[in-house]
Amino acid sequence: MVLLNIKVPYCFTRYVSLAILLFTPWICTSFGTLSQAAENPTYHVNGILGGSVFLSLNAPPAIKVVKIQWAFHPTSGYSYPLGEFRDGKLDLSNLRSMYEQQMETGDAVALRIENLAMVDETTLRIKNLTMEHGGIYEARTWINSALFQEHHFILTVYEPVPRPWIHHKVESKTPEGCTVTLQCQAPVKEEYTISWKRGNPPRVLVGGLVKHWLSDNGRNLHVSWRKSSSDSTFTCLVSNPVDRNRASFDLLRICASGEGGQQKYWGILPLPVCAVGASACLIMIWKKKMLGKEKDAASAMQAQEGSPAPFLRGDPPKDGDDLLR
């Protein structure tokens, strides 16, 4: 027996390794092994708190599904099976004994199982969604006793979007219009998206304005509005992937159609002028009365000095009075 010592070039081994990596998925698929990337899809599903979602398997009609096993992987904690679909029904018999005690105490896991229902052979419905329903749902579809396919559903449950409100601040006013800052007040959450619309019905925020710009990640809308513009209503929209809410504000409420901000100051200016004028009039009247009293007193004193002193009967006669008699 002759042993040959053949040295294979290093570059040749690299080409062989690369060929194996490239053609292995095709070879495996040809022999019936399902590829994780091509045959095991992952779906993203969004649901609203208290609502329902449908997890549907896109199985080809020609494939006969023997059974479907469902499992749940929560965002935190351990994974566990949900049930097995067979003969047109979701069989939970194997799980009832496991969760019987938990169901009596109202355990969240058992309550999730109670909210499951099969709509058809390949669609699972989850109703009365809670935040704990969020996670990864795995469906293992058995085509025969040895071959199965896995599907993964990433479920995210969102809360309903609360109604926002708009806070306004007038920066300046002119007879032609005003400059205003509108602030959309809404809870700060990562999944919330804030946008602005104009007009009624709301449409895109372009055109019809002298100038507008956004700040604070779109929460603040700065508007230079002119009364000649056809749109005076601005709407703040807050949304997440499953819900949205909005609030509107009409600039005519704060930007008067007539004279603008200067009218505000001219309207206030006559008040202090009138007050000063009234005070001056009162002071003049008071001084006039005081001068009149002083003149009357002086006249009375002059009259008393010019008249002879009256003779009183009780006074004793002075020297020479008898001679005159």
TrEMBL record:
Residue ranges of every copy of the Ig-like domain listed in the record: 162-248
Classification via InterPro entries: CD2/SLAM_rcpt, Ig-like_dom, Ig-like_dom_sf, Ig-like_fold
Localization per Swiss-Prot or TrEMBL: Membrane
GO CC annotations, alphabetized: membrane
Record SUPFAM superfamilies: Immunoglobulin
Region (Disordered): 296-325
Main location: membrane
Superkingdom field: Eukaryota
Entry keyword set: Glycoprotein, Membrane, Signal
Regions annotated as coiled coil: none
Biased composition (Basic and acidic residues): 315-325
UniProt-recorded name of the protein: SLAM family member 8-like isoform X2
UniProt source species: Podarcis lilfordi
